[in-house]
Every structure is written in structure tokens, then in C-alpha cells.
Amino acid sequence: MKGVLIWVLRLWSVVGIGLSRSEYGLEELKAKESLLSYLEKDAVSSDANSLMVPLTLIQGAASKGAVCLDGTPPGYHLDRGLASGANSWLIQLEGGGWCTDIRTCVSRKTTRRGSSKFMERQINFTGILSNKAEENPDFYNWNRVKLRYCDGASFAGEGQNEANQLYFRGQRIWSAAMEELMANGMQNAEQALLSGCSAGGLASILHCDEFKYLFPKTTKVKCLSDAGLFLDATNVAGGHTLRDMYGGVVTLQGVQKNLPNTCTSQMDPTSCFFPQNLIANIKTPMFLLNAAYDAWQVQESLIPSSADPHGYWNDCKMDRSHCNSSQMQFLQDFRNQMLDAVNVFSMSDQNGLFINSCFAHCQSERQDTWYGNDSPRIGSKAIAVSVGDWFFDRTAVKAIDCPYPCDNTCHDLVFNDVTSTITISRSTRLKFSLLNLLSAFLISLICSKCTMEFQFGQ
Q1: Torsion angle (degrees, nearest 10) of CA 390, 392, 395, 398
Q2: Would you tell me how many other CB atoms lie within 10 Å of the CB of residue 82?
Q3: SS (H, E, C) 336-347
Q4: Which of 305, 313, 406, 457 could bridge 402 with an S-S bond, Cβ 3.0-4.6 Å?
Q5: Which range is the signal sequence, renumbered to this chain (predicted)?
Q6: Using an 8 Å Cβ cutoff, are 403 and 357 in contact?
Q7: 141 vs 43, 49, 132, 136, 452, CA distance in Å?
């Protein structure tokens, strides 16, 4: 693509804004959430021809205690199905990281990740949500729903903090949304797919069997998790960054009571928030779509700034082509951990896999990665084709890529000291200045709705 397109990155959605240099942990969490926000939401193309779908608030949710972090009602976007897809439903659970303590949750509730007051009144549907057959061949005419994420615990929390007026009601939001959608026609579904990206991909794993149980046995029900396979991995300093984060989420938001007892009867609650300890026991057919070198996990779980204070890993972290042999081996070991984590899961005939050797995060909602002329492939199959073949039982899909650097179809995320680049295609790149990003970050401290422009360019 040539010419210039304007991109807006809503930095006011960043979780955990810290004002003091001494609050280093909060600042690092803020950076994690900023990256997640960009990868999960803001990197989705806002094509002028894409479908814009309005927000619907669940008006009866508050009476059931099903509210966002700030007490406002949750919401969703629905585009009705047509013709052969009129009785088919796809539910996409929005991602957006987590809040792990009172301070980060208080900050989050003044963003679209914690309050419907700040949610966009309409969003564009692309990728798996597209209404065009040439962009989304198997699901374009289904009833397609984007359930907004405003609880900070992957739709799994239950509790509240009265002193700070925080409501941890993710499980109730899930239930209220499903109740409303069932009443709006989903109870007549002939087939249904629960999907989600990142924190929403984790949520699709947590709620997969619950989703199945909403329907009669005659309904074809499956689940898809995109970039939701977060691993309990060791960082470059030997610590467990993500375990520490998940421990805060589970403890603060009362997630334990909503975790499957098949796991909690054998492991601690934090371990049971990790997908690797859940997927083998899910009864409903599930498809795992994940980058073997997940961009967010590489950046913020494996190589967080706190684990690399001297910047030894900085060049490698920014651009995998700058990794030395020992650093690359560390990343290959992470890929091996991912493959080990799905080993038992993959043995089931009902499950599907697409694990490509890319440095990416969330590939189902982006049009360029979901289905396009140069979208990522394993063998000859694009992601959309693989998911469709699996859902409709056209063929078994257990696609695992060869290790980096063998795959030249990836749309990788690459950083450097001046710009951060997402390869949209082999000839087109999205670039933004990190200096501009930091400037906008400072502005966002005093303006919760400030935006920033990004440009496409050769």
C-alpha cells in the first residue's frame, strides 16, 4: 500500500499511569499494558471501507452487579448474520491486559478498559469479524459480536473494593452478556464459535466449556484462542514476571472461585490462570492460534526492563535479527516450552493448532494476518483457511511451523531505537516514532482522551 493513512493510538487507555520515578513497578506495568493495547486493538486497520458497528450497553446488567471496574454497564457490538449465516454466532472477547493491584485498577477505570463511559461508540470489524466474503470466507455472514473488556481479569473476577469504588465483576459481565445474546437470538444457533485475542484469548479458554453448556447438544460449538497461550516462563534474570502479575490479578479480583476445580484441586490458583494448565482438560473442541515467539511475551514477560537493567538484551528485544546465538537459543527454548505445553492438547482429534514462527501477537482481528494475499501461512494455508477447515471438519489442522527463521510469510513486529515497525506486508510498513510516543505519553497523564497520529509509509 502506498500513500499515507492516519492511525490513532488512544494512549489514554494505558493501564497504570505512574507519576513518580520511585514507582518503577507501576511504570513497567504501564509499559506492558501500552504494548498490549497497541498490539490487541490499535494495530487493527481502520480501513475506510470496513464495517463500523455501534456499541450496545447491557442496560439490565447493573441490577445483577455485572458492571465494569467503575460501576458502569458493560457493552458489546453486534452485526447481524444473513442468509446461510443467520443462525450462526461468533463471539469475540476483547483483550487488553490485566490490572494487578488497587492502583492499576483505579487507573484502568478511567479508560475504555475499565469503563463504558470511555468506550468508542462504534468500532470497525475486520479480520474474523469482517462482513466481506473475500476477507473472511467462512464467518462473514454470521452474527458477529465483539464483547468489550472492562474488568481487568479476563472476564473471570468476582469481588469489589469499596474504599476505592472498584468492582471486580468479570464473571458476572460474561454471564449477563451471554444471557442478553441468548435472548437476542443466540439460543437458536445451529453453530457457534467463541473466540478472543490475548487477554480475551485467555478468557475464551476459561469460558469455553461454559459457552458450550449454553446450547443444546445439537448445536455445533467450538472455541478459538488467539494469542492467549501465556506461559509460566522464566525471564532472562531467572524470575517469573508473568506469574507475579497473574498472582496479583487472581488475589485482588477473586478469580479463584471461578477457576475450574479440575485444576484448583491439584494446583495453586495462580497456576490455574495459566492456559498451559487448563487446555488439556477442556471438553469442548478448541483451536489454539499463537505466534511461537509471541511479541508481547518476548517483550514484557521474558525480557522485561527489570530483568535486564544493563540493557544487555535491548537490541535483541527490539529486533530479533540482532540477537546473538545464545539469545536466540533462549527464544528457541521459549518456543519449545510452548510446544511442550500443547503436547497433550494436540493429541485430541477434536482440537486444532496453528503455531507459526513469527514475532507477532493477535492475528485473527487484523485483516492482513487473518486473510489476505500475503497473509502468514504454514505450508500453503492461511490462518482463516486453517480455522475454517477445523471448525467445519473439512480436515484436521495441527499446523506447527519450523523454527525461526524459516518462515518468510510472517508479519513481524520489529522495534529499533528510532522507530517501531509492524510489517503489514512485504512492501508496506507501519512506523511510529518512540520519541513521539513518549511525548504523547506525557500528555496522556493530564488528558485522558488525547490521541496521536500514526502514518503508513514505505
Answers
A1: 10
A2: 12
A3: HHHHHHCHHHHC
A4: 406
A5: 1-22
A6: yes
A7: 24, 17, 8, 9, 34
Q: With 80 as the cut, is the pLDDT of residue 326 above it?
A: yes
Q: Domain span at residue 26?
A: 6-457
Number of domains the chain is built from: 1
Grid cell for residue 58: 447491557
* Per-residue pLDDT band at 37 (split at 50, 70, 90): low
Bridge partners, 8 (sequence order):
453
C-alpha distances (whole Å) from 324 to each of 264, 313, 339, 405, 450 are 40, 10, 23, 14, 39
- Residue 128 three-state SS: helix
Q: Give residue 413's pLDDT band: very low, low, confident or very high (50, 70, 90).
A: confident
Question: Do 53 and 79 contact (CB within 8 A), yes or no?
Answer: yes
- Cα separation, 245 vs 105, in Å, equals 13
* Contacts (Cβ under 8 Å, ≥6 apart) of 222: 192, 193, 194, 284, 285, 286, 287, 390, 391
pLDDT in tens, 348-401: 999 999 999 999 999 999 999 999 999 999 999 999 999 999 999 999 999 999
For 206, 295, 304, 457, the CA distances from 202, given in Å and listed in that order, are: 6, 16, 21, 34
Cα separation, 371 vs 45, in Å, equals: 13
Q: Which of 383, 376, 380, 382 is nearest to 407 (CA)?
A: 376
C-alpha 427/C-alpha 303 separation (Å) is: 29
pLDDT at 418: 39
Mean pLDDT within 69-75? 98
Taking the CB of residue 164, how many other CB atoms lie within 10 A of it? 12
Q: Inform me whether the pLDDT recorded for 147 exceeds 50.
A: yes
Phi-psi region of 71 (alpha: psi -120 to 50; beta: other; left: phi over 0): left
Q: Rounded mean pLDDT of the chain? A: 86
| Domain presence at residue 126 | yes
Q: H-type helices in 122-240, by residue range?
A: 170-183, 199-206, 208-213
Of 247, 234, 226, 223, nearest in space to 364 by CA = 226
Annotated catalytic residues are 198, 294, 361
Give the C-alpha separation, 458 to 447, whole Å: 32
- Neighbour-count burial for 109-142, b at 16+ CB within 10 Å, e otherwise: bbbbbbbbebbeeebbbbbbbbbbeebbebbbbb
Establish if 1 belongs to a structural domain.
no
Which candidate, 261, 279, 282, 263, places its Cα nearest to that of 271?
Answer: 263
Q: How many Cβ atoms are within 10 Å of 346's Cβ, its own excluded?
A: 18
Q: Examine the pLDDT at 271 and tell me if it is beyond 60.
A: yes
Whether residue 408 is contained in a domain is answered as yes
